[in-house]
Automatic annotation (TrEMBL):
Organism taxonomic ancestry: Bacteria, Pseudomonadati, Pseudomonadota, Alphaproteobacteria, Rhodobacterales
Predominant subcellular localization, coarse grouping: membrane
Membrane topology, record value: Peripheral membrane protein
Name the record gives this protein: Methionine ABC transporter ATP-binding protein
Annotated source species: Cereibacter changlensis JA139
GO CC annotation terms, alphabetical: plasma membrane
Amino acid sequence: MSQLLDVRDLQTQFFTRDGVATAVDGVSFTLNRGEILGLVGESGSGKSVTGFSILGLVDPPGRVTGGQILFDGDDLVRGGEPLLRGLRGKRIAMIFQDPMMTLNPVLRIDTQMIETVQAHAPVSRAEARARAEEALVRVGISSPAERLKSYPHQFSGGMRQRVAIAIALLHKPDLIIADEPTTALDVTIQAQILSEVQALCSQSGTALIWITHDLAVVSGLADRLAVMYAGRIIEEGPTAEVIARPRHPYTRGLIDSVPQGKRHGARLAQIPGMTPSLLNLPEGCKFAPRCPRADAACAVEPRLDPSGPGRAVRCHHPHGDSETRVLS
C-alpha cells in the first residue's frame, strides 16, 4: 500500500485570555491508502482537534502553529484554505459527532446531497439524485426517494447521523476522518456502518481515521491504534498488539476499565484522577500524577521510542509482554 497521509510534528494551539493551550503537541503519524487508523483517548486528549487540524477546521482563537500535514505529497498547512477548499468533501471527508454540523436545518436532504455531488462532479441533477439515493441505502435508510424530500428535523438523531455518514461517502474520498460517528446509533446500525466503511476501505483504497473513546468498537475495525493523552501520542502500533499487550500504563488503564464479564458486584477498574488542564500541564510525563508506576524519572518528559516491530511508546517504565489482555 502506498502512503497517503504523513503528519509530522503537528502542533495546534488555542490562544485564550488565560494562556496558551496546546491541544495537539508534536503529533506525528502516517496513513497508507486503504488503512484504518484508530485515534483513541479520553475527552480532552486532542484527538478531535487533530482531525480538525488536518482539514483546516480549527476556528480562532485556535490555529495550527507548527508541523506539516502532507496529503498525497501536498502540504496542507502551507497550501492553506485555497488547497483545502478543493479537497474537502471530494478527496477528504469528515463525519462529525454532531450531524447538525453537516446538515443545514432549513434545506431538504435532497438539496444538500445533490449540491454536494454537483460541487465536485460534472453530473446532471438526476444522476446526482441517484447517487444520493444509493448512499442512503448503504447506511441503512429505507425508502430513500421519499427520505430525500425530508428536512433534518423530521429525522431522529440516529437517522440524521446516518445521513451525515452518507454525505461523507458520496464521492468515495481518498481519506475519511470520522469523529465518533456511531455514538448515537443503535448496535445493529452501528455494525452495518462499520461493515460498510471497512468494505469501502478494502475495495476502493479509502483511508480512514476513526476517532473514538470506545476501544471495543475500534478493536474490531482499525488496523493500527494511536493512543493520545494531553495532546500527545503516547502509544501506537498494530491494533491486535496494542490491545493484547499494552505497553503504556494509560493504555492498560483504558483497557482494564472496559467491563468484560467480571463477577457480579465486582468493582470496575478505573484510572484515578482527571485529564489535566491544557493550561496547566504537569512537568515531565503528563500522565505521571495518575500513573501507578511513576517515580522520580518521570519528572523528565519521555520520548516516543520504538518498543518492537511497528510499535512505539512514550514512557520511562513501560509494561512488558508478560501479561496478555483480552478485550471482548
